[in-house]
Structure to design on (670 residues):
C-alpha cells in the first residue's frame, strides 16, 4: 500500500477540490491509502453523502493553516499544528510515504527541510517539474526554491534531476543540460560557466548548454538552472500558453462563419486544449529531501490536484529519495 | 528623409533576404533612404533585373564579415572594414540615422558601444524588444546584453524602457515593473530586492513586481530584468509558441475528418498563425547608445528583416536616443 499524506487545508480552492481529487485517485487505484490532514468537520462535510472508498483513507485532525502570506520562518516556528506541518510529520514518522500540499511554497520547503532533512551531499533541495515538450517531456529544476544558486548547487540539481528522470521515465542515462543564453562556452553568467566543466567531468550524461526554446524540444531530458531563472521561465510559459489560447479563441469568434467553423472544429480544438492544459502538468517535486514532498499549484482544481498525487505515487513507487541518497553515497562527487 | 544603414552581409540567410526587405520598405515608404553596406557585386546580383527605387538607396562597399563565431573582442579589434563596423560608422559620422544588423549580438553590442558611446548616465546599453501581449504589447529589457546586472543597471534599464514606451507608443507614464518570482517584497534575488525601493522612489510610474506570466498581459508596459533572465524568458516564449503550433497542427492531422475540418478552418488558423508569427516581432533595440541600433534575429527572412528596419525608423522618428539623453541630463537620478 502506498500511503500519501494530503494537506487538505491549503491552496486557493479549499478542501472541496482536494476531497474530490482524493476520491478520483482512490477510485482509480487500489494500492493507495490517502491520509487527509485538516479540519475533520470540514473534510467530512465535503465527503458528504457519497463516502470515499472504505479502509483506504483516514483523517488526521490539524488545528491551524499556513496561509499564503505567512513567511517561511513564521510557518516553521509558530504553526506546529498546521495541516502542512502535520502532513510532513507523518512522512517523518513513517506513517506516510509522501506528502502533497497546495500551500505556500516557501513554508512547505522550510518545514520539509527542517522536519525531513536533506539527503547527505545535498545542500539545498530543489523544485523540479515535468514540462511538456514536442515528442515527450522534460524535467526542469530548480523552479524557485533557490535564488543565486552556486555552480555546486547547479551540479547537485543535475544529479538529482538525472536520477529522477531515470527513475520515473526509465530513461537510460538521461541527457542533462545547463540552461544558458547561448551555446558557446564564453556565454552565460559566472555560475553557469563554472558549472559546465564540473558537469562535463562528472559521470552524468551532460550534453552542454541549451537555450530557453530547447526546453520544449526532444533534445534534452533534464534542464538545470537557478531557481530565479527557472521560475521566470516556467511562469513565462504559462503566460504564453494563455495568450496563444486567447488568440485562438478570438479568431474562432471573429465572425458568424468563424463561429460555425469553430463549432465543427470543437472536438479538435478541445483535444488541442487538453494537451496544453496546465492541470496535466500540476505537481512539482521537492527533490533532495529524505522523503517525497510534492507541491501542487495553489489554484489547482480537483483534476490538477489528483495529478500532483499521481506524481507523489510515481516517486514513492520508484523510491526516488533513496535512489538519490544511495547514488550520492556511492559516488559523493557524482557531479 | 530617414536614413538607415543596413548591414547586408550578416545573418544566417544572407544578402538576398536583406535586399528583399529593403525593397519592401522602400516600396511602402517614400520618406526613407537605405544604405546597403556589403559586397557591391553580391548586392547588385540580388537586386538583379528588378531595380530598387532610384535615388533612395545607396551601396557602401565593405571588405569583410563578422561571423557568428567571432568573439566580440576579435570583431572589434580585427574587423574594422566589416559590413557591421562600417554600418555603425555611418551612424557615428552622421551619414545614417540608424543601423540594422542581423549579425552576432555580442559583436554588434561591443562595436556599437565603442563607436557610438553610451548616453551620459548609462553604464551599459540594454537590448529591448516588443513582446506581444493580450490586448497590446509589452517592452522588455534587458534581453541578453548584460548578465549579472546590478540594481543600478536595472534602474537604468527602467528609465530607458519607460522613455522608449512613451516615445514609440505615445503612452503617458508607462507602467514599469521588475520581473520577479513572486509579488511579495521578500521574494527575489538581491539585485531585484535592492532595485525595488530605488524605483519606488524614482519619478517613474513603477508598479512593483510582475511574474513571468504577466509579461503577456495588459497589466504592464515595461518589464525590467537582468539580461540572462530576459533572454531565457524570451527564448522560452519562442519554444512554447512553437510547441503549441506543433500540437495544433498535429490535432488537425489526426484523421481524414480532422484534415477536412482543417481545410475549412485554414483561413482562421492562418490568421491565428500570423498573430503569433515571431517575424512580426523581429527587431530588438540596443538602448542607451548615442544612436539607433537595431538587432535583427540571425535567421530573419525578408519579412522579419523589414520589420527590424521599421523598428529603427520608429526610433529615429521619435528621436529615442536624444530623449534618453535629455531625460538623464534633466534628472540624472531619474531612477
Amino acid at each position: 500500500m502506498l500511503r500519501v499524506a494530503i494537506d487538505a487545508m491549503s491552496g486557493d480552492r479549499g478542501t472541496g477540490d482536494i476531497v474530490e481529487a482524493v476520491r478520483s485517485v482512490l477510485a482509480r487505484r487500489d494500492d493507495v491509502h490517502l491520509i487527509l490532514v485538516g479540519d475533520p468537520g470540514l473534510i467530512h462535510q465535503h465527503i458528504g453523502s457519497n463516502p470515499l472508498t472504505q479502509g483506504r483513507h483516514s483523517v488526521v485532525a490539524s488545528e491551524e493553516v499556513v496561509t499564503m502570506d505567512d513567511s517561511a520562518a513564521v510557518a516553521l516556528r509558530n504553526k506546529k499544528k498546521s495541516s502542512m506541518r502535520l502532513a510532513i510529520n507523518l512522512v517523518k514518522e513513517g506513517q506516510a510515504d509522501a506528502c502533497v500540499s497546495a500551500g505556500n511554497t516557501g513554508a512547505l520547503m522550510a518545514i520539509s527541510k527542517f522536519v525531513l532533512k536533506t539527503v547527505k551531499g545535498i545542500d539545498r533541495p530543489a523544485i523540479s517539474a515535468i514540462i511538456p515538450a514536442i515528442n515527450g517531456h522534460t524535467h526542469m529544476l530548480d523552479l524557485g526554491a533557490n535564488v543565486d544558486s552556486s555552480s555546486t548547487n547547479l551540479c547537485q540539481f543535475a544529479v538529482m534531476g538525472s536520477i529522477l528522470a531515470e527513475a520515473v521515465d526509465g530513461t537510460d542515462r538521461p541527457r542533462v543540460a545547463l540552461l544558458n543564453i547561448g551555446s558557446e562556452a564564453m556565454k552565460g553568467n559566472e555560475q553557469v560557466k563554472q558549472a559546465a566543466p564540473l558537469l562535463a567531468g562528472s559521470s552524468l550524461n551532460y550534453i552542454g548548454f541549451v537555450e530557453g526554446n530547447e526546453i520544449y524540444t526532444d533534445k534534452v531530458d533534464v534542464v538545470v538552472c537557478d531557481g530565479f531563472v527557472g521560475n521566470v521561465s516556467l511562469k513565462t510559459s504559462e503566460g504564453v500558453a494563455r495568450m496563444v489560447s486567447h488568440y485562438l479563441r478570438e479568431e474562432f469568434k471573429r465572425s458568424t462563419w468563424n463561429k460555425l467553423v469553430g463549432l465543427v472544429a470543437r472536438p479538435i480544438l478541445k483535444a488541442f486544449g487538453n494537451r496544453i492544459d496546465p492541470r496535466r502538468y500540476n505537481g512539482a517535486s521537492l527533490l533532495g529531501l529524505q522523503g517525497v514532498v510534492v507541491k501542487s499549484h495553489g489554484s489547482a482544481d480537483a483534476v490538477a490536484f489528483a495529478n500532483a498525487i499521481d506524481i507523489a505515487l510515481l516517486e514513492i513507487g520508484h523510491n526516488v529519495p533513496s535512489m538519490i541518497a544511495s547514488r550520492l553515497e556511492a559516488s559523493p562527487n557524482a557531479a
